[in-house]
Write a structure and sequence with these properties.
The protein is an alpha/beta fold and 186 residues long. Helix content is 49%, strand content 12%. It has a five-stranded mixed beta sheet with strand order 1-4-2-3-5, with helices on both faces.
Length: 186
Amino acid sequence: MIGSSTMESIQPTSSVRAQAPPAAGDGLARGVMRAPEVLVQETAVRPQSTGKALEEVLVSAKNNECLTIGVYESAKVMNVDPDSVSFCVLATDEEYECDIALQIHFTLIQAFCFDNDISIVRVNDLQRLVEILGDKAGDLEDAHCVLITNPNEDSWKDPALEKLHLFCEESRSLNDWVPEITLLER
Protein backbone atom coordinates (compact mmCIF):
# COMPACT_ATOMS: atom_id res chain seq x y z
CA MET A 1 0.00 0.00 0.00
CA ILE A 2 1.30 3.43 -0.83
CA GLY A 3 1.56 5.86 2.08
CA SER A 4 -0.12 9.25 1.95
CA SER A 5 3.23 11.03 1.88
CA THR A 6 4.18 9.06 -1.26
CA MET A 7 0.88 9.89 -2.95
CA GLU A 8 1.35 13.60 -2.28
CA SER A 9 4.79 13.52 -3.93
CA ILE A 10 3.49 12.02 -7.18
CA GLN A 11 2.76 14.83 -9.60
CA PRO A 12 1.45 14.44 -13.12
CA THR A 13 4.13 15.28 -15.68
CA SER A 14 1.71 16.78 -18.15
CA SER A 15 -1.95 17.59 -18.38
CA VAL A 16 -4.28 17.11 -21.29
CA ARG A 17 -7.04 19.63 -21.78
CA ALA A 18 -9.99 18.92 -24.02
CA GLN A 19 -10.54 21.52 -26.71
CA ALA A 20 -13.67 22.38 -28.61
CA PRO A 21 -13.67 21.42 -32.28
CA PRO A 22 -12.77 24.24 -34.66
CA ALA A 23 -15.57 26.36 -36.04
CA ALA A 24 -16.82 25.60 -39.53
CA GLY A 25 -15.28 28.77 -40.97
CA ASP A 26 -11.94 28.22 -39.21
CA GLY A 27 -8.93 27.52 -41.45
CA LEU A 28 -8.01 24.51 -39.31
CA ALA A 29 -11.30 22.83 -40.11
CA ARG A 30 -10.56 23.01 -43.81
CA GLY A 31 -7.07 21.56 -43.21
CA VAL A 32 -8.54 18.68 -41.24
CA MET A 33 -10.95 17.92 -44.07
CA ARG A 34 -8.16 17.79 -46.67
CA ALA A 35 -5.88 15.46 -44.73
CA PRO A 36 -7.93 12.28 -45.31
CA GLU A 37 -8.13 13.03 -49.02
CA VAL A 38 -4.33 13.18 -49.25
CA LEU A 39 -3.98 9.93 -47.31
CA VAL A 40 -6.46 8.20 -49.61
CA GLN A 41 -4.48 9.32 -52.64
CA GLU A 42 -1.21 8.07 -51.13
CA THR A 43 -2.63 4.65 -50.26
CA ALA A 44 -4.13 4.28 -53.74
CA VAL A 45 -0.70 4.82 -55.32
CA ARG A 46 1.32 2.92 -52.71
CA PRO A 47 0.30 -0.67 -53.62
CA GLN A 48 1.33 -0.18 -57.23
CA SER A 49 4.66 1.42 -56.38
CA THR A 50 5.56 -1.12 -53.68
CA GLY A 51 4.59 -4.01 -55.93
CA LYS A 52 6.75 -2.60 -58.69
CA ALA A 53 9.63 -1.95 -56.25
CA LEU A 54 9.43 -5.52 -54.94
CA GLU A 55 9.53 -6.91 -58.47
CA GLU A 56 12.55 -4.71 -59.32
CA VAL A 57 14.38 -5.83 -56.18
CA LEU A 58 13.69 -9.51 -56.82
CA VAL A 59 14.91 -9.30 -60.41
CA SER A 60 18.02 -7.34 -59.38
CA ALA A 61 18.78 -9.72 -56.51
CA LYS A 62 18.36 -12.70 -58.86
CA ASN A 63 20.79 -11.13 -61.34
CA ASN A 64 23.28 -10.46 -58.52
CA GLU A 65 22.84 -13.97 -57.07
CA CYS A 66 21.56 -12.54 -53.79
CA LEU A 67 18.46 -14.72 -53.41
CA THR A 68 17.70 -17.67 -51.17
CA ILE A 69 14.50 -19.46 -52.10
CA GLY A 70 12.63 -21.98 -49.97
CA VAL A 71 11.52 -22.24 -46.36
CA TYR A 72 14.21 -24.69 -45.27
CA GLU A 73 17.01 -23.02 -47.25
CA SER A 74 16.00 -19.66 -45.77
CA ALA A 75 15.98 -21.09 -42.25
CA LYS A 76 19.52 -22.40 -42.79
CA VAL A 77 20.78 -19.00 -43.98
CA MET A 78 19.07 -17.19 -41.10
CA ASN A 79 20.60 -19.61 -38.61
CA VAL A 80 24.15 -19.49 -40.01
CA ASP A 81 24.44 -15.83 -41.02
CA PRO A 82 21.44 -13.66 -40.06
CA ASP A 83 23.43 -10.48 -40.75
CA SER A 84 23.56 -11.35 -44.45
CA VAL A 85 19.75 -11.24 -44.75
CA SER A 86 18.44 -7.91 -45.95
CA PHE A 87 14.79 -8.62 -46.75
CA CYS A 88 12.26 -11.45 -46.45
CA VAL A 89 9.24 -12.23 -48.63
CA LEU A 90 6.63 -14.74 -47.50
CA ALA A 91 4.27 -15.96 -50.19
CA THR A 92 1.07 -17.92 -50.11
CA ASP A 93 -2.17 -18.20 -52.01
CA GLU A 94 -5.62 -19.69 -51.42
CA GLU A 95 -4.37 -23.24 -51.94
CA TYR A 96 -1.84 -22.99 -49.08
CA GLU A 97 -3.73 -20.74 -46.62
CA CYS A 98 -4.89 -23.73 -44.56
CA ASP A 99 -1.49 -25.45 -44.53
CA ILE A 100 -0.81 -25.48 -40.78
CA ALA A 101 2.83 -26.54 -41.11
CA LEU A 102 3.51 -23.69 -43.53
CA GLN A 103 1.80 -21.19 -41.20
CA ILE A 104 3.97 -22.42 -38.30
CA HIS A 105 7.08 -21.94 -40.44
CA PHE A 106 5.87 -18.44 -41.34
CA THR A 107 5.36 -17.59 -37.66
CA LEU A 108 8.88 -18.75 -36.79
CA ILE A 109 10.42 -16.88 -39.73
CA GLN A 110 8.50 -13.72 -38.80
CA ALA A 111 9.71 -13.94 -35.21
CA PHE A 112 13.28 -14.39 -36.38
CA CYS A 113 12.99 -11.41 -38.72
CA PHE A 114 11.56 -9.22 -35.94
CA ASP A 115 14.33 -10.25 -33.55
CA ASN A 116 17.03 -9.49 -36.13
CA ASP A 117 15.56 -6.27 -37.62
CA ILE A 118 14.95 -7.84 -41.02
CA SER A 119 12.21 -6.21 -43.10
CA ILE A 120 9.49 -8.68 -44.03
CA VAL A 121 6.43 -8.59 -46.32
CA ARG A 122 3.78 -11.01 -47.54
CA VAL A 123 2.56 -11.49 -51.07
CA ASN A 124 -0.63 -13.38 -51.88
CA ASP A 125 0.18 -14.42 -55.44
CA LEU A 126 2.59 -17.33 -55.31
CA GLN A 127 2.28 -18.02 -59.04
CA ARG A 128 3.25 -14.43 -59.94
CA LEU A 129 6.22 -14.59 -57.55
CA VAL A 130 7.42 -17.78 -59.27
CA GLU A 131 7.10 -16.02 -62.65
CA ILE A 132 9.29 -13.16 -61.40
CA LEU A 133 11.89 -15.51 -59.94
CA GLY A 134 12.00 -17.60 -63.12
CA ASP A 135 14.04 -20.81 -63.22
CA LYS A 136 15.62 -20.04 -59.86
CA ALA A 137 12.33 -20.76 -58.02
CA GLY A 138 11.99 -24.36 -59.13
CA ASP A 139 8.38 -25.15 -58.30
CA LEU A 140 5.66 -23.54 -56.20
CA GLU A 141 6.64 -25.53 -53.11
CA ASP A 142 10.02 -23.77 -52.91
CA ALA A 143 8.87 -20.17 -53.33
CA HIS A 144 6.97 -19.71 -50.05
CA CYS A 145 9.93 -17.91 -48.52
CA VAL A 146 12.41 -15.76 -50.41
CA LEU A 147 15.34 -14.01 -48.75
CA ILE A 148 17.27 -11.19 -50.30
CA THR A 149 20.79 -11.53 -49.00
CA ASN A 150 23.68 -9.16 -49.07
CA PRO A 151 26.94 -11.03 -48.43
CA ASN A 152 28.88 -7.86 -47.73
CA GLU A 153 27.68 -4.32 -47.31
CA ASP A 154 29.32 -2.83 -50.41
CA SER A 155 28.51 -5.59 -52.88
CA TRP A 156 25.01 -4.64 -53.92
CA LYS A 157 22.84 -1.56 -53.38
CA ASP A 158 19.40 -1.06 -54.85
CA PRO A 159 17.26 2.08 -54.43
CA ALA A 160 14.09 -0.03 -54.72
CA LEU A 161 15.26 -2.09 -51.73
CA GLU A 162 15.65 1.10 -49.71
CA LYS A 163 12.11 2.06 -50.74
CA LEU A 164 10.83 -1.30 -49.48
CA HIS A 165 12.69 -0.91 -46.18
CA LEU A 166 11.04 2.50 -45.76
CA PHE A 167 7.63 1.02 -46.61
CA CYS A 168 8.12 -1.68 -43.94
CA GLU A 169 9.25 0.88 -41.39
CA GLU A 170 6.19 3.05 -42.06
CA SER A 171 3.93 -0.01 -41.84
CA ARG A 172 5.43 -1.00 -38.49
CA SER A 173 4.78 2.51 -37.17
CA LEU A 174 1.11 1.88 -38.01
CA ASN A 175 1.21 -1.52 -36.24
CA ASP A 176 1.14 -3.44 -39.52
CA TRP A 177 4.07 -5.72 -38.73
CA VAL A 178 3.96 -7.85 -41.87
CA PRO A 179 2.47 -5.70 -44.62
CA GLU A 180 1.05 -7.35 -47.70
CA ILE A 181 2.24 -6.28 -51.12
CA THR A 182 0.29 -6.98 -54.29
CA LEU A 183 2.49 -7.98 -57.19
CA LEU A 184 1.55 -6.36 -60.50
CA GLU A 185 0.12 -8.57 -63.23
CA ARG A 186 1.98 -8.87 -66.50
